[in-house]
Amino acid sequence: MAIIYKNFRASVVNILPLLILYYLSISEIDTHFSNMFEILSFNLQIIIIYYWMLKNSSVLGNGHIFFAGILNDVVMGLPLGISSISYLTVSLVASYIRQVTVNISLFTDWFTFLLAIFFSNLVYLVLILNFTNLQISYVDVSYNAFFTFLFYPFIWTIFNFYQRIMILRNDD
Amino acid sequence: MSSSRDDFGIAIRSALLKKGAKQKFSLVFLLIIATIIFLLDTYQFKVIKFTKILINDGIYRLTNISTAPLRFLPIINNKITETTFALKQNKELKVELEKLKNKEFQVEFLKNQNDSLRKILESDVKIKGKSILAKVLIDKDSPYLKSIVINRGSKSGIIKGMPVVDGNYLVGKIVEVNYLSSRVLLLNDLNSRIPITFGKESIQAILSGKGETKPVLEYLPELYEPYGNQTVFTSGKDGVFLPGIPVGKTEMDELNVQVRLFSDPNQLSFVTVQLINLNKDNF
Predict the structure, then answer these.
(1) Do A77 and B183 touch (CB under 8 A)?
(2) I need a surface site. Which of A32, B6, B45, B67 has the fewest CB within 10 A?
(3) Predicted confidence band at B127 (pLDDT cuts at 50, 70, 90)?
């Protein structure tokens, strides 16, 4: 009984980042605070994907990232697959950085996150502009990218703390 | 030089092809699948179109349910404030006050809802033609797209392009129709273009969304000298919107003539879809 409880507790702790990713993709709650501050919006999904693919890729998994992207497209009314490609690009950058980096610190994470945001938004813009009739505001996309980059250290600190809890729970 | 290029190639190949212990698909496989889905959707293939309609209906309902508890957050917030205030009073008064407040909120909520529904019902009489009342399921305020999802679809006779009004005022048009739900593109979206008319001279222009709260007027006559506080109506020139639906009032900006919409696009809970006969050639 104790083993079942322990395993259940560990799986709940491990699955939480994935649940947050899905919930953000499917729900109306987004990180767009135009009511409070006109230009403030950031993409928490990208931060979650980048952090967990870099630190512990087994927490999310590329299949879930793909599916979360599809859900996000449906809710946002974007062409199907565009968010998936954008998220998988972030995952690709994170996997590449994981392969080539030995020492990981907040600074290296933050700097390389810039590459992930750049490629993710580049792919997003290229697809929107070349394959759809949608118009998007470059200023809004830029602000979104800027604040996503700016908030990374705060979320990094929270996730780092959470990851310690995950390790402790697994070692119980 | 050659060695560093090799290292880069190995790392990229590993990132694309390597699967984790619990992962079933490699990154490159999923990227290819996502690209195929994107292309099928972009070029409107029938298979993906029908699949999308089914997925949309399911996910919109799920989104509506998943966010339902969050709509009570402001109410919970109010209750906490009230409770803090009531703690300063004696126990009897606190209990009595809380009960009264709860009832008052419920009455106010029902009264507001009743008023808004009554307004919508009255407005149906004023605007000619058949119409259908719809509830807003999702009003996710995206930084890129300004749209809402309503709980009426092709089952209720909705067709792409139909105008959507809040009371008597235009709020947007249908851009995506599923069986049980539809997406409405709001007037302030970057992709929204509506032919309008205003003023004594019946000036014709295009109301163009800018992604901000107030859309602007474009294609005004060359010698026109703009001034504010004029009511803007749909002109019906496109053959889609009925002429004479009020949209908003003009406001002067430094460079543009903005339109303050009569209906706030961020405050929609019920809307009415005008079931007009649309010629498919318009789209």
Answers:
(1) yes
(2) B6
(3) low
B271 in Cβ contact with B164 (< 8 Å): yes
Domains along chain A?
Answer: 2-171 (1.10.1760)
- Res. B80 pLDDT band, cuts 50 70 90: confident
For residue B76, is pLDDT > 70? yes
Which residues does chain B have within 8 Å of residue A140's beta carbon, measured at their own beta carbons? 143-144, 211
Can you give the three-state secondary structure of B246-276, one letter per residue? EEEEEEECCCCEEEEECCCCCCCCEEEEECC
Residue range A50-100, pLDDT digits in tens: 999 888 888 888 889 999 999 888 888 888 889 999 999 999 999 888 888
Half-sphere exposure of B132 (CA within 13 A, CB side): 19
Residue contact B67–A66, C-beta within 8 A: no
Predicted confidence at residue B123, as pLDDT, reads 57
A8 touches B119 (CB < 8 A): no
Contact A28 B63 (CB under 8 A): yes
Whether A171 has a pLDDT exceeding 70, the answer reads: no
Distances (CA, A) of A164 to A37, A91, B22, B96, B205: 33, 22, 21, 47, 60
- pLDDT bucket at B212, cuts 50 / 70 / 90: confident
Task: Please give the domain boundaries of chain B with CATH numbers for all domains.
Answer: 72-126 (no CATH), 193-261 (2.40.10.350)
| Res. A166: pLDDT tops 90 | no
Q: Write the residue in B16, B48, B63 that is nearest to A26 by C-beta.
A: B63
User: Which candidate, B127, B126, B119, places its Cα nearest to that of B236?
Assistant: B127
Chain A interface disruption, residue of B31, B35, B145, most A CBs within 10 A:
B31
Comparing A85 with A13, which gets the higher pLDDT? A85
Average pLDDT over residues B191-214: 85
Cβ contacts of B254 within 8 Å, gap of 6 or more: none
How close does chain A come to B271, measured CA to CA in Å? Answer: 19
Q: Is A33 near chain B, with CB under 8 Å?
A: no
Structure token pair of residue B253: 């900006």
Tell me the shortest Cα–Cα distance from B189 to chain A, in angstroms.
9
Task: Say if B216 is an interface residue toward chain A (CB within 8 Å).
Answer: no
Instruction: Test A95 with B14 for CB contact under 8 angstroms.
Output: yes
